[in-house]
Amino acid sequence: MTDLASSVAPPRPTLSDRAKFYGLWIATALVLLLLPKLFASGGSLTTFSLVGISIIFALSYNILLGQTGMLSFGHAVYYGLGGFLAIHTINILGFNKWPIPLPFVPLIGGFAGLFFAALIGWVMTQRSGTAFAMISLGLAELVASSALILRSFFGGEAGISANRTKLFKVFGLSFGPQIQIYYLVAAWTLIAIIAMYALTRTPLGRMCNAVRDNPERVQFVGYDPHVVRYLAFCFSGFFAGIAGALAAINFEIANSAYLGAVQSGTVLFAAYIGGIGFFIGPIVGAIFVTVLSLVLSDLTQVWQLYFGLFFIIVVLFAPGGITGIMMMHRPLLRAGMLTRMLPSYVMAALPTLALCLGLMLMIETTVHYTVNPHEDPNRVAFGIPFNAASPLTWVASAVLIIGGFILAKMAWSRVAQTWDTTLTAARAKVHAL
Amino acid sequence: MLELIVISTLNGVLYGMLLFLMASGLTVIFSMLGVLNFAHASFYMLGAFFGYQISRWTGFWPALLIAPLLAGAIGAAVERFGLRRVHRNGHVAELLFTFGLAFAIEEVVSIIWGKVPVDYRTPALLDFPAFTIFSTNYPAYKMFMLAVSVVIFIGLLVVLKKTRIGLIVQAALTHPHMVAHLGHNVERIFMLVFGVGTALAAVAGVIAGPSLVTQSNMASLLGPILFVVVVVGGLGSLPGAFIASLLIGLLQTFAVSINASPATLFGPLGPDLAASWLNDIWNVTIAQIAPIMPYLLLVLILIFRPMGLLGTRET
Q1: Nearest C-alpha of chain B: how many angstroms from A309?
Q2: pTM above threshold 0.80
Q3: How high is the ipTM of this complex?
């Protein structure tokens, strides 16, 4: 038996591999530490805090979707309940003057998420796939609607607010200024990322992947897929609760929007756009989606439409998400052949950009006539001034859309051809070595 | 009391039939393509708004015909250019695609028609009380809604069970390759079924629009209930969806009219408990929890009969 085990077990990582591995984490910690030194404005600190929260939330979501194959439409339930429990905890701690400082409050949120996930999860995880998706949606609606009925706990429409500075102070930290909140969020983000990464390396994490890929086979091997799904669900609820508690600490308020469908949808968008097949995917997605929504909402008033369209395009053309696209290029990079793709990418990017520009013009012109018809037709969207009333704008958008579409279609099929030949060449080169 | 029961039953059956009109399209699409169309309620909303817009130009009756055709055409296009492409990437990708679609449709509708309810009125021809029960006038339009729902229900059953088209569709559900070998274009059948399913949802939208509120969040209000219907009835079971629709329709309308709470039944809580959050649960009336009744039913079904009322499959 020992012979077999030693021959099957992977070789122990070499010293340089381990240095690379730990170096990555230390580098992440350093970046998190130095980030506010580089961007010290209040706006960027708030953005960083929001990004950190959304990273934890998106990673916790990916325990379900990416690792265990459960598509949940109600993940905000655990996030929101974590947030509410955190707010109530802050109020109770502040009122009774118990010597528990603020940095431990996210743990309370995490246990709240864990508790409710453990409570609801057993019936939910009996089924997977489409049925699970719908059931999660129904239960999310149940909790979100109940929040408006149970007013004294959830605070009705207005929500519950708290004062985070009233808590027991350690090292003289009041957690009033945003910079202290940033470091609190950053520390918890790093802890949560490491914990969730470690989870993927445990036997449970491996069984989750097995359940996602082939539940029948897992059953034959002797594991109960239901139990594996349930455990994954509980862990996911725990980390979602931490994210919710951090959000509640950041805003000093929890309201029913925390539990709602919009929140569940946003985390799904973030995880999927980033790429659910990779551990780093949801992190990329959380950063991308949070920053994009902040930037887009400044540029145009119908940013949510662009958001939805972008999501559809990712589902249609890049099921691996942003990370998936990046990882696709790794073999080319290794063979040093990435530059061969560049000309065809540029060729395809130009008509695609024209197509996007035409669509934006069309959407913004429509918005002018439907949302604010009595205002000045000279509008600015994405920094581009245009006249919505002028026929020239319509002609331009029509030409851009139709011309861009035809050219983009041709250019992208060229890209596919170049891709195939380059990839074959790259493989040949690597194997020849 | 009798008045309450009669009126609530009528309203409940009406609401249930509307639910079924949508759930039938959803269930047929699900059994065919294996994907739950998350945007199904969005097509119901599109039907309502198209119906509103067309009825302003041409009157209600042409709208009743044109709006579902339009929505059905959009549905067919969605299947042809969207779903068919995502199909290779598995069911999760398909569900996500329709999820994104539902999101985008809601945004587009709120851009075009605004976020406030539009003034979609019942046609003048049907704007009179049909009959009076216990001094309550029952509008003729509601009877018309009921009639349309029943006619479509029977029509759907006849087409699926008795005609050659139904035979081919049913065969394509289980044995697509065999049907393709027999010379039928399975892909086109799928597209048409998707189009017909979304058109059914749009019919429900056109006729429900004047009676319920036509606004840009009507899809997100109804969508989850639709999924509850499908799960409670049993995935892919048309009779199950019918029973579940009626059950939920009746449950919700009866709940709305019952103004009892645990406090009225068992008396108010003691003064020291009245300030706690238990007081909320104690004083909540059944009418207040009517909106969450379907979800409570979902939880009960999950615990006691996970495959749904008439479902046969576990997944």
Answers
A1: 6
A2: yes
A3: 0.85
